[in-house]
Amino acid sequence: MSVVVERVHELITPILADLGLDLYDLDHAGGVLRVVVDRPGGVDMTAIADATRLISRELDHTDPIPGRYQLEVTSPGLERTLRTPAHFRGAVGSVIKVRTHGHVEGERRAEGTLSAADDDGITIITVDSSEPGPRRLAYADIERARTVFLWESTPKPGKGGAKKAAAGASTHGKAVS
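Now predict its structure.
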């Protein structure tokens, strides 16, 4: 973590805690300071706006970032990026997509259920692969990873679908994150 990111982290964590938000991720690259916030149940636009206003005020006051930058405060979204061991631990049981670095043996792209995540790496259970089953990857082997939002079909009217939907047997979409 860079000195700038560490300093910004120290400054904004108490602000986010006061707003009932968790810092999901923090990145400073290419002139953009990206602050990703979350909370149980998700984040609405009011929370994003409040966080943006208060963080911007604090950063203007303390000026921890040399030069020009653009502040971006956002939620992780439905298909959230997984970069840290904590991100992966929070996504255990979810369907994820992983791309490995070129030097890693096996397929570079994998999709499956994240079955385990610890301090050293992850285990993903792949199904549609030339080598289905569990695959262990160290964090250093992962180029990028994200959760996958799975869309479920809506029952067709007149086919008993209304009864199933009313009974709670079907939903319009299922977030897997």
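DSSP finds four helices and eight strands in the chain.
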